[in-house]
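Appendix B, record 7
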Amino acid sequence: MQGDRGHSTGFRRSRRAGRGFAFLALLLGALTGLAVSAHASGLPEKEELKFGFIKLTDCAALVIAKELGYFEEEGLFVTIEAQANWKILLDRVISGELDGAHMLAGQPIGATIGIGTQADVITPFSMDLNGNAITVSNAVWEKMKKADPALAAARPTHPIGAQALAPVVEEMKRSGDPLKMGMVFPVSTHNYELRYWLAAAGIRPGFYTATDSTGTTDADVLISVTPPPQMPATLEQGTIQGYAVGEPWNQQAVFKKIGVPVVTNYEIWKNNPEKVFGMTRAFAEQHPNTAIAATKALIRAGKWLDASLENRKKAVEILSRSEYVGADAEVIAASMTGTFEYAPGDERAMPDFNVFFRHEATYPFYSHAVWFLTQMRRWGQIGEDKPDAWYHETAKKVYRPDIYLKAAEALVAEGHLTASEVPKTDGFKPPDAGFIDGVVYDGRRPNAYLASFAIGNQAGQGVASTR
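Structure tokens (predicted):
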């Protein structure tokens, strides 16, 4: 990366020149009685920024935008800092200690509607698609194979539903020691994907209620929060018997031979949204040029990540550094370079396991936000019925394609994107049948979607009672 460091030095010189020009413009404005602001000039209103991230491979766009100088090309001088967990990360964005962050897609939504905390947080940029998996301990996997002998094959057929897990769940529940599984945060994709996978097989993952913030009411399986880097160790200790997490922590279980990833989120919901880049609404309103500039840099980073296998290999080396993900490059490469390993020796091609730009991955679709809201309602985090219009209005408060499009249009003008690479959409995707249970999702009709599930809150319910 030596060449990139030289590249950055050049941009620092350009920055000083740019500051000089901005100063002269401001001085001239003062002399002539004109108010020349950074906003009017098109320059970033705030240049020195600090962004947060969690040690996961899907922070890649943030890391690459910094390492390849894309932030500096936009006049931004960014420090990126690993955070201990998702709650601390969100709290620091809200407090202003961080200017923005790599976030769970559900965090800006949950904050905006007051789940856990109340704050206006937005996202102009979707960081990736797919990238998660559900891993079970070796002991649970052995029991699943006994329940379904087809799983004992050297290369069992995927996707694997949770049907083979159901008798294991019942056995453990009868013994008084229910199956315990980890996920990373109550409003995480991982929580909703794990619950979706279990419920599709008739396993009740539990409900949130006004008096139960743990989400374990009426549960067959106890799901709790564990920070991503701690998942493998917590599994190995026997505190949990399975987990849903992003990479490299599923592949880590394979490399350590302590667990088996049984299903990826690509198999639960094909090309599902995962992380976003979040900032407060106040920050975006006070620093609109800065928000656009950061989005431009992130779009370019996403495009670079998907441009070639060689770029992915370079990204693996960068992400493996201790200041970033800090896992062995071999472990990160196992899912970042077009494959996924379910068990030692069972490596399969999965070119779409990590997507950073293709399939319109960077666009903040309203329909993605609506899906998260439906799951919050399904499992009781939203405690009462809402009309379809509420889902749509809430999505539009949080997901900001207007900022994205300003950034993308500028990149087209500069030759970094082609016009065909900018999605032409009203923010809603067509009805989506890419789910493991075959249920079709239409973001325009959230209540009809919720009514299609046998397990989950129905109209008028606080906790579903159907079995």
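Remarks on this record: DSSP finds 20 helices and 16 strands in the chain. The CA atoms of residues 143 and 168 lie 7 Å apart.
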